[in-house]
Amino acid sequence: MVNNTCQTSYCMMCNLSGNVPLDTTPLAFTRGLNRNGLWDEKAGLYGLKGGYAVYCNGHIICFDGSKPARFLKWDKTGYTSDIRQTIPTGTIISCTHAKPMLNVAYSGENALAIIHTTGTGGN
Fold first, then answer.
1. Is 122 inside any structural domain?
2. Distance CA 12, CA 92 (A)
3. What is the distance between the terminal CA atoms of the chain, rounded to a whole angstrom?
4. How distant, in Å, are the alpha carbons of 23, 47, 83, 98 from that of 5?
5. In angstroms, rounded to a whole number, what is the distance separating the alpha carbons of residues 61 and 27?
6. 97-117: b or e for each residue (b if 16 or more CB lie within 10 Å)?
7. Rounded to whole angstroms, how far apart are CA atoms 108 and 41?
8. Which one of 15, 100, 108, 117 has the minimum C-beta count within 10 Å?
9. Are 68 and 33 in contact (CB under 8 A)?
10. CB 81 within 8 A of CB 68
11. Which tens digits make up the pLDDT trace of 7-32?
12. What whole-number distance in Å separates Cα of residue 67 and Cα of residue 39?
């Protein structure tokens, strides 16, 4: 019997408005990104080495894990290491991996629902 348990490597932004700034709004990022802008050693796709974010216009930014990732805040008032502050209210971050990346179900400041699931593959 083959074990079809899958571990997705990315977290996706769902329910994004079509009116977001395409060059500064992340669409996906590698799993394991913590609120402090560093990737988790065990949950991160590349461990402590870092990861990357894919933006709505298609460009990709790679982050070196030796320093926190920096993102432009949604309201453009500055920069943050917390990727949740880069997306509009109502956006959902969907991640599929065994260990939760963000340990919140709701954030009042950004009205985010963080969904964690462990998927199983089909045929």
1. no
2. 8
3. 12
4. 34, 20, 27, 10
5. 12
6. beeebbeeeeeeebebebbbe
7. 28
8. 108
9. no
10. yes
11. 568 889 988 888 899 999 999 999 88
12. 10
83 inside domain: yes
Q: Is the pLDDT of residue 5 over 50?
A: no
**Cβ–Cβ < 8 Å for 58, 79:** no
List all residues 6 or more positions away from 25 whose beta carbon is below 8 Å from its beta carbon.
Answer: 13, 16, 55, 56, 74, 86, 87, 88
| 3-class SS of residue 100 | coil
- The answer to whether residue 62 is domain-embedded is yes
Q: What is the pLDDT of residues 94-104, one digit of tens each?
A: 876 444 444 44
Cα distances (Å, whole numbers) of residue 119 to 36, 64, 116: 27, 28, 10
Q: What is the pTM of this model?
A: 0.71
CB 41 within 8 A of CB 48: yes
What total of structural domains would you count in the chain?
Answer: 1
φ, ψ of residue 84 in degrees (nearest 5): -65, -25
Residue 119 is encoded by which pair of tokens?
A: 């998927």
In this structure, is residue 123 part of a structural domain? no
**Spatial separation of the C-alpha atoms in residues 101 and 36, rounded to whole Å:** 12
pLDDT, average across residues 26-46: 91
